[in-house]
């Protein structure tokens, strides 16, 4: 039986191999990476039922955004 299911590891590998670049630039890989990041933010917002995308913070670990937020409050 064949499945069309894409695993988390498949998506991570694809990101690292094809769009692991600086966000916000105008070259093709950056445009795609920015689009994917924005889509992920929108998906997280829908999952958490927030009112604004500004309520979502993405980071490289589960604690880094909280640490950065704490430093911003100092």
Overall 3D form: globular
Element string (H = helix, E = strand): HHH
β-strand number: 0
Rounded radius of gyration (Å): 15 Å
Average pLDDT confidence is 88
Main sheet summary: none
Low-confidence stretches: none
Helix run count: 3
- Give the percentage of residues in beta strands: under 5%
How many domains, as an integer? 1
Helix percentage range: 55-70%
Q: How far is the first residue's CA from the last residue's CA? A: 56 Å
Structural class per helix/strand content?
Answer: mainly alpha
Structural account:
The structure is a single chain. With 74 residues, the protein is mainly α. It has one domain. Helix content is 57%, strand content 0%. It has 3 helices and no strands. The protein has helices at 8-18, 28-48, 64-73. The radius of gyration is 15 Å and the shape is globular. 1% of the residues are buried.
Entry summary:
The chain has 74 residues and is an all-alpha fold. It has three helices and no strands. The longest helix has 21 residues, at 28-48.
Main attributes?
74 residues; mainly alpha; 3 helices
Question: Strands, helices and their partners?
Answer:
Blueprint: H1 8-18, H2 28-48, H3 64-73
């Amino acid at each position: 039986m064949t499945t069309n299911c894409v695993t988390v590891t498949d998506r991570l590998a694809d990101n690292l191999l094809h769009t692991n670049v600086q966000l916000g630039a105008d070259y093709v890989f950056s445009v795609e990476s920015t689009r994917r990041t924005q889509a992920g933010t929108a998906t997280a917002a829908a999952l958490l039922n927030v009112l604004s995308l500004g309520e979502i913070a993405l980071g490289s670990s589960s604690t880094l955004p909280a640490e950065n937020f704490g430093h911003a409050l100092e």
